[in-house]
Each structure stands twice: as C-alpha cells, then as structure tokens.
C-alpha cells in the first residue's frame, strides 16, 4: 500500500472508513454494498475512498482480520498460560470469546455472516475452522482430565458452547458490559441454571 493510501484524506482515516463499511456490510450484506454506498454514507466521492483503502474486498479483509485476530490472540493467551488446568483453560476460552465478541461486535457479526463467496471470505472461513478445532481440543482435554462430561463428542460440545456465544450477535447491544456478560455466560455454560446446595 502506498504512503498516499495510508495517509488518507482530512476528516477521515482508514479506521473511520472501516467502521462505516462494517456497519453497511452488516446492514445491507457485503455483496449488496457498493463503494458508491460507502461514499454516500461517508459524504465522500468514490475516488476519495481509494485514498484510504484499495478495494471493497480490502475493507472486508480488514474487518474479518480484526475479528479473527482478536479471537486468535485471546485463545493464544489462554493456551500459553501454564497455570491453567484444562477446565480453567476452557472456561477462560469461553470467557475471552465473549469479551472479544462484545468489544468487537460489528466485526464479529460480519465474520459470522460470511459464506465463502470471495477469496477473503474463504480465507476467513479456513481461519474460523482452525479456531473451532482449537476450541474442540480444549473441550477434549477438559473431558480427558475428568473436569467435564466425557460422554459428549468434543467437537459437538464445542459447537454447542461456542454456538451459544456466537448467537449473542443477534441480540447484543454495543453498550453491553463485556466483563459482566462474560461472567454470566461462563457461569451458565459450566455451572448451569439450577441452584445447587
């Protein structure tokens, strides 16, 4: 990318263009959103947008990289902590996934809507599959350690657990308290709804 593209135009930078693009992609769908739509939303000419990004697909890549990068970094942090037991690691993975989803709600929402129609989407789906396998491995390790039920397939358990987390994109508000929500989801996922004792 040239220095001219990185620098951008007065009043807008790549980040502000990206925020508006993510919002439009989520409202209208990626395929149905044109650079003209984005220009109108920003109050710019179409050519002015190219001072910030090289293409619509580049905007999609940036958005998907935001979501995937934050999720991957969160899992890497959890995996790297030697003090965690398998159960603590899995709890921390669920908790950090909720925090990432809450703090990056528009980008994660977009990630969960991609279907593989473009090279950027295909790459994102491959990265999502890798994350799914890493989460399933954490479930398997917790089951083998006797911390959670061993009679449920780890991949299925992982899909159900993180499907619950991902479903939050349908009802969550941007002003939600990430930490409190992460605590609630983790408590319900591991301790259930029933009162004990």
UniProtKB/TrEMBL annotation:
One Pfam family in the UniProt entry: TetR_N
Keywords noted in UniProt: DNA-binding, Transcription, Transcription regulation
Superkingdom of origin: Bacteria
Residue ranges of every copy of the HTH tetR-type domain listed in the record: 11-71
InterPro entries xrefs: Homeodomain-like_sf, HTH-type_TetR-like_transc_reg, HTH_TetR, KstR2_TetR_C, Tet_transcr_reg_TetR-rel_C_sf
Keyword Transcription: yes
GO molecular function: DNA-binding transcription factor activity; transcription cis-regulatory region binding
DNA-binding region: 34-53
Keyword Transcription applies: yes
Name of the protein in its database record: TetR/AcrR family transcriptional regulator
Organism: Nocardioides ganghwensis
The organism's taxonomic lineage, starting at the top: Bacteria, Bacillati, Actinomycetota, Actinomycetes, Propionibacteriales
């Amino acid at each position: 990318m040239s220095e001219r593209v990185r620098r951008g135009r007065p009043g807008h930078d790549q980040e502000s263009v990206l925020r508006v693009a993510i919002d439009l992609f989520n409202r209208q769908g990626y395929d149905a959103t044109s650079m003209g739509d984005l220009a109108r939303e920003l109050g710019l000419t179409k050519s002015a947008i190219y001072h910030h990004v090289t293409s619509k697909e580049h905007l999609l890549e940036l958005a998907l990289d935001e979501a995937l990068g934050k999720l991957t970094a969160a899992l890497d942090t959890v995996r790297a902590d030697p003090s965690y037991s398998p159960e603590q690691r899995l709890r921390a993975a669920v908790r950090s996934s909720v925090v990432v989803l809450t703090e990056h709600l528009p980008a994660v929402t977009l990630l969960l809507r991609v279907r593989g129609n473009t090279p950027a989407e295909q790459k994102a789906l491959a990265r999502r599959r890798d994350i799914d396998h890493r989460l399933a491995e954490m479930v398997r390790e917790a089951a083998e350690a006797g911390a959670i039920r061993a009679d449920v397939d780890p991949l299925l358990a992982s899909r159900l657990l993180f499907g619950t987390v991902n479903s939050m994109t349908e009802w969550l508000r941007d002003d939600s308290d990430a930490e409190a929500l992460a605590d609630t989801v983790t408590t319900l996922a591991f301790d259930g709804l029933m009162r004990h004792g």
